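About this split. The held-out portion is used to measure sequence recovery: a designer receives only the structure tokens and must propose an amino acid at every position. Recovery is the fraction of positions where the proposal matches the reference. Here is one held-out target exactly as it appears in the evaluation file.
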């Protein structure tokens, strides 16, 4: 079976990792603007976010430069988006996944009317994409909520934030009706792994952090469903997806104890998709709340909205797989995407410790499709590596080509077996600031950006070897990898 004729090839970025221009055109501070740079000192621990507390938030607020806060400068995408889109068009992109920074439209999140400069900016962005017939896929929340809502309400723990988010989304729907593909929350399941980045929760303000995380998640489900309904009503042609971190977990041995540990890890990973696809909480999760003595406020009215706002497709990121054991101390650990997990002895890891598991992508696609029978969309996949820029401005990233080739091969195998797959967007088609560490030196792009961790450099863009390779993949609709 071939890929769909209209297979949506492209790349994915997030506003806070590419745009920079953190204090331009009335933009407000977001949680990303207070994320400090962290060097990659220990791959066993690096997935952990820098501890966030009121003191370092205040220090960040008082700091009026981008020093130490690389997401404030991004890769200057705010000014260079035309150049970047021309390069994406050269590769033949059909789609570009990007996010709309909430703080450009609503600087504190609480304004009643949007900031005109912010609204105008994304109009220009979408018009530029239109020139190349590249369809935008818009993520409405990608780790960049207004800092004000975190500080004032402890983020999504407070139901008021639902209304603020819905107001922001309504503006997006009204102002950008040409957008056909929408994702509500990036990696919604990550609230329980990095509560500040995903939900604006400042841990020291929580009496019971686990309870607050699940409460925040519930309100994100509510907001997501409300917005999904709204898009369905206001833009009947458009489609809405949920977005998960697909953390496929393997048991470390065939000991039933380890199988159970792995099952539990997968159940927690599926939980958010279960709610957003089926419109109800899985019974195992409701019991998990009871067993953990979590008192989550969930009303019948909220559940009605959640049941009416289910998604049209399931999108997900896939970088690596996990290993679980009943006794974690028996495992060697390694870093991964927002997690630390057992190291798989059968697989290699990247320089940042992430397990490279192409077959895991096929397994993930099969499992997701088997569970939900909904169209799937891979909206993030890629390898972070320390590329070398040669004197002649070439970058020989054969390791990246190998990574993509192997993953796309497994993706095609899954389609061959009957999975309905809408498209594939690599993360990030251009080098950008790392979400977890704010490093520039952890590079994902087909396009190199000449900037270092301290923000020095020309910010010129150069095509890596993988650029031409991906272009050819798209030209042949994945037939030639
Ligand atoms: C995903 C995020 O978790 O992984 C992206 O949606 C992120 O925002 C990507 O950039 C890769 O992670 P990192 O930490 O290497 O940038």
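Reference sequence for scoring:
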């Amino acid at each position: 079976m071939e890929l769909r004729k209209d297979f949506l090839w492209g790349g994915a970025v997030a506003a806070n990792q590419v745009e920079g221009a953190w204090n331009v055109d009335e933009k407000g501070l977001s949680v990303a603007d207070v994320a400090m740079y962290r060097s990659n000192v220990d791959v066993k621990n690096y997935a952990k976010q820098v501890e966030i507390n009121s003191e370092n938030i205040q220090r960040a607020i008082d700091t009026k430069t981008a020093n130490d806060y690389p997401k404030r400068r991004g890769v200057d995408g705010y000014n260079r988006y035309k150049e970047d889109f021309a390069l994406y068009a050269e590769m033949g992109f059909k789609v570009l996944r990007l996010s709309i920074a909430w703080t450009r439209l609503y600087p504190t999140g609480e304004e009643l009317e949007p900031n005109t400069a912010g609204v105008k900016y994304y109009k220009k962005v979408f018009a530029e994409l239109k020139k190349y017939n590249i369809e935008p896929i818009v993520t409405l929340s990608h780790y960049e909520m207004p800092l004000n809502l975190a500080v004032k309400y402890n983020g999504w723990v407070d139901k008021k934030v639902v209304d603020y988010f819905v107001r922001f989304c309504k503006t997006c729907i009204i102002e950008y009706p040409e957008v056909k593909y929408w994702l509500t929350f990036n990696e919604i399941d990550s609230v329980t792994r990095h509560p500040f980045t995903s939900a604006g929760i400042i841990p020291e303000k929580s009496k019971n952090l686990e309870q607050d995380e699940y409460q925040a998640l519930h309100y994100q489900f509510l907001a997501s469903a409300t917005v999904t309904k709204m898009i369905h009503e206001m833009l009947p042609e458009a489609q809405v997806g949920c977005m998960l971190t697909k953390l496929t977990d393997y048991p470390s041995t065939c000991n039933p104890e380890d199988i159970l540990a792995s099952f539990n890890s997968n159940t927690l990973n599926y939980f958010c998709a279960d709610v957003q696809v089926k419109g109800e909480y899985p019974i195992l999760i409701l019991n998990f709340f009871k067993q953990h003595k979590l008192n989550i406020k969930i009303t019948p009215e909220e559940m009605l909205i959640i049941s009416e706002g289910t998604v049209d497709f399931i999108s997900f990121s896939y970088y690596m797989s996990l290993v679980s054991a009943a006794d974690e101390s028996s495992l060697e650990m390694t870093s991964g995407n927002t997690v630390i997990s057992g190291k798989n002895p059968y697989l290699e890891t990247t320089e940042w410790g992430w397990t490279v598991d192409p077959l895991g992508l096929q397994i993930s696609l099969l499992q997701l499709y088997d569970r939900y029978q909904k169209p799937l969309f891979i909206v993030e996949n890629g390898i972070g590596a320390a590329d070398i820029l040669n004197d002649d401005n070439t970058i020989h990233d054969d390791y990246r080509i190998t990574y993509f080739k192997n993953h796309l091969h497994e993706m095609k195998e899954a389609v061959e077996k009957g999975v309905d797959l809408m498209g594939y967007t690599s993360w990030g088609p251009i080098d950008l600031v790392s979400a977890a560490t704010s490093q520039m030196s952890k590079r994902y792009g087909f396009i190199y950006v000449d900037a270092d961790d301290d923000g020095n450099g020309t910010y010129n863009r150069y095509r890596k070897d993988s650029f031409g390779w991906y272009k050819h993949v798209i030209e042949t609709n994945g037939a030639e990898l």
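Annotator remark: The two ends are 16 Å apart (CA to CA).
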